[in-house]
């Protein structure tokens, strides 16, 4: 067995049949599941975080259905194709409700290698409003021009909805599922987690501002464009998202102990 070290210096074993690159992705994805739980963004055993395997066409890793996010490890993540067919030997299956959304995005968007779906209270509240995200706070301004909206069609189980979801997403990286929640996607786990954090903060502040009497200060479109552009520039090549992700893993494991 080969060995590798997690960010908390916990030695874990890599099975011989899993490549080093896949194992490294499994470790990051499992940490991401634990972080989503740590921040309180889980929906019990539901919702999904997926990561595409770079060297295996049309395959991605996702959570075993029935496990809490805190029970997910690099080893028990399951591998599926874009249609949700399981491609690994595992006692677990995936949640069919996630395959239509995640499979569609992974199959269609070469620039998106990780997708996170949540429906926290704040995000779901914003998703229930006709106007969606108001780009009038520090975090929302960073999302300017990056948000698509998809009308609610019920639980996302059916293949026929894939095309409509992709059309709603277009070339954007945030899909608001109206009356439901959100899906965010980026080029790797770290950037996707940072995007999720930004979306969550934007929603929380919008909900809080809405509870206070009086009108919001409206930001000009040019300011939103500038903020979104600067944020994209910041995370593109600087390692900013990796630093943020690693710091959050260290904080989580300092509070909770090693994840596995």
What does this structure look like?
The two termini are 17 Å apart. Helix 5 links the parallel strand 7 (147-150) and strand 8. The longest helix has 22 residues, at 189-210. Helices cover 41% and strands 15% of the residues. It is of the alpha+beta class and 260 residues long. The chain is globular. It has a 7-stranded mixed sheet, with helices on both faces. The protein contains 8 helices and 9 strands. The protein has helices at 20-38, 96-108, 121-127, 138-141, 162-169, 189-210, 221-237, 240-256, and strands at 2-5, 11-14, 48-52, 59-62, 78-81, 114-118, 147-150, 174-177, 181-186. Helix 1 (20-38) packs across helix 8 (240-256).
What can be said about this structure in brief?
This protein has 260 residues and is of the alpha+beta class. The chain is built from eight helices and nine strands.
What's the arrangement of secondary structure elements?
Blueprint: E1 2-5, E2 11-14, H1 20-38, E3 48-52, E4 59-62, E5 78-81, H2 96-108, E6 114-118, H3 121-127, H4 138-141, E7 147-150, H5 162-169, E8 174-177, E9 181-186, H6 189-210, H7 221-237, H8 240-256
Parallel strand pairs: 7-8
Antiparallel strand pairs: 1-2, 3-4, 3-6, 4-5, 6-9, 8-9
Helix pairs in contact: 1-8, 2-5, 3-6, 6-8
Family: Belongs to the aldolase class II family.
GO molecular function, one term: actin filament binding
Pfam families: Aldolase_II
């Amino acid at each position: 067995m080969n060995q590798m070290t997690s960010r908390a210096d916990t030695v874990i074993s890599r099975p011989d049949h899993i490549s080093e690159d896949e194992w490294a992705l499994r470790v990051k994805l499992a940490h991401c599941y634990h972080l989503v739980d740590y921040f309180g963004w889980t929906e019990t055993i539901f919702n999904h975080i997926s990561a595409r395997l770079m060297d295996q066409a049309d395959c991605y890793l996702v959570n075993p259905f029935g496990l809490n996010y805190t029970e997910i490890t690099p080893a028990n993540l399951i591998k599926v194709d874009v249609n949700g067919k399981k491609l690994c030997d595992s006692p677990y299956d995936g949640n069919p409700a996630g395959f239509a959304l995640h499979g569609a995005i992974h199959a269609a968007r070469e620039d998106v290698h990780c997708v996170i779906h949540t429906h926290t209270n704040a995000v779901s509240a914003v998703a229930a409003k006709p106007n969606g995200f108001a780009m009038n706070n520090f975090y929302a301004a960073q999302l300017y021009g990056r948000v698509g909206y998809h009308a609610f069609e019920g639980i996302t189980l059916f293949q026929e909805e894939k095309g409509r979801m992709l059309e709603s997403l277009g070339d954007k990286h945030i899909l608001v599922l109206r009356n439901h929640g959100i899906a965010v996607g980026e080029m790797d786990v770290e950037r996707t987690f940072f995007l999720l954090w930004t979306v969550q903060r934007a929603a929380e502040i919008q909900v809080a501002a809405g509870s206070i009497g009086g009108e919001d200060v409206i930001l000009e479109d040019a300011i939103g464009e500038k903020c979104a552009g600067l944020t994209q520039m910041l995370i593109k090549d600087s390692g900013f998202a990796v630093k943020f992700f690693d710091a959050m893993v260290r904080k989580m494991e300092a509070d909770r102990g090693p994840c596995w």
